Automatic annotation (TrEMBL), chain A:
<feature type="domain" description="F-box">
    <location>
        <begin position="13"/>
        <end position="52"/>
    </location>
</feature>
<dbReference type="Pfam" id="PF00646">
    <property type="entry name" value="F-box"/>
</dbReference>
<dbReference type="InterPro" id="IPR001810">
    <property type="entry name" value="F-box_dom"/>
</dbReference>
<dbReference type="InterPro" id="IPR050796">
    <property type="entry name" value="SCF_F-box_component"/>
</dbReference>
<protein>
    <recommendedName>
        <fullName>F-box domain-containing protein</fullName>
    </recommendedName>
</protein>
<dbReference type="InterPro" id="IPR036047">
    <property type="entry name" value="F-box-like_dom_sf"/>
</dbReference>
TrEMBL record, chain B:
<dbReference type="GO" id="GO:0009867">
    <property type="term" value="P:jasmonic acid mediated signaling pathway"/>
</dbReference>
<comment type="similarity">
    <text>Belongs to the SKP1 family.</text>
</comment>
<protein>
    <recommendedName>
        <fullName>SKP1-like protein</fullName>
    </recommendedName>
</protein>
<dbReference type="Pfam" id="PF01466">
    <property type="entry name" value="Skp1"/>
</dbReference>
<dbReference type="GO" id="GO:0016567">
    <property type="term" value="P:protein ubiquitination"/>
</dbReference>
<dbReference type="InterPro" id="IPR036296">
    <property type="entry name" value="SKP1-like_dim_sf"/>
</dbReference>
<dbReference type="InterPro" id="IPR001232">
    <property type="entry name" value="SKP1-like"/>
</dbReference>
<feature type="domain" description="SKP1 component dimerisation">
    <location>
        <begin position="124"/>
        <end position="163"/>
    </location>
</feature>
<dbReference type="InterPro" id="IPR016073">
    <property type="entry name" value="Skp1_comp_POZ"/>
</dbReference>
Amino acid sequence: MRGASITRAPPDLLDEIVIEILVRLPVKSLVRFKSVSRTWRAIISSEFFIRAQLEQSSASSRQRDPSFLITLHALPHPGEIWPTPFSTHFRFYQWRPGTGDDDITNNKQAAAPLVYETDMAGNKLISRVRCCCIAHCDGLVLAPTDAKLYLFNPATRNAVVLPNNDDIPPATRRVLPLRRRSGARSQDRQVQGGSVVLPVAGLQ
Amino acid sequence: MAAPESGDGNNGAARMVTLISSDNTRFEVEAAAASLSQTLQLTILDGGGGGGDGIPLPNVDSATLSKVLEYCIKHAPAAANGGAPNATAVDRAELERFDNEFVNIDQSVLYSLIMAAHNLEIEGLQSLVAKKVADMIKGKSPMEIRRTLGFPDPTPEEQAEMNAHMLEYGWAYE
């Protein structure tokens, strides 16, 4: 980037090119590059950029680099169905089909490396609290229980407990049909051993 | 607006246009290839660039322009088919192989290319080069990026911000 032509470029064009490059980077690089300069931070944090990056990464993920987000959920009894007892310890793994075998033999890497884990409240299996169903959209994961709503962004390692509205009785709370809107519902599947596999668009 | 001259009288003889680089080198190329540039497309549709006229490109030097045209010539047939519904998997694989090799070049050439692709608005080339640069920089540290871009050394205040960011988001630096 020492080339003379880049310093001669008008600033508008430079910004445009910087955005075009940044938009193709994975989230982890983007988090790191927020510290390159204040301009870069402003670009990467902007609403416009976040949307563009999501669009770009979902498109390229659909085309050639699909990956799945896996979260473990221990089902105490075979054949158990939702809602189930709920652990506040969440782990998210990322799996890219086709890369796993090679990684294991050559690089001694996990087939599905851990992306993010968090404990929302002391790692206890709270048997009375039940997790209703896990929903996801654009790389966000929503875990509703009959006590609280947990929202995760595994790519940016953010987790929030959504504000609880105690005025609404638990039985009447409903989770918005995020999955249907993401259009990825048919890819959802539950694999043996009780893991839930979610397709993930862009991890943003 | 004049209609594009279909076939130039003789069946199969493709219409040619002339492009002139910033250092005054003339490039003669098929109109279909040059039309991959949104910037040139209208001029060419209007009948420009033919004969002895030539279209001057004051922002693109000859080394860069010849590289750009190499891309356009290779991609023109597929573009003419409108995304090429009849393109075979072999054709697509061949284009992909060409693209990979095409951007396997020196950094400084890449940056001239991305500027030219923007100036000429050649969408496919813009994203091809942007993807390549993204792949090249994705593992770098913020300091490495600053140095590569020729940013001045961070002020003590900026340095403190960078250190704080690294502490807070250690996982992104692993």
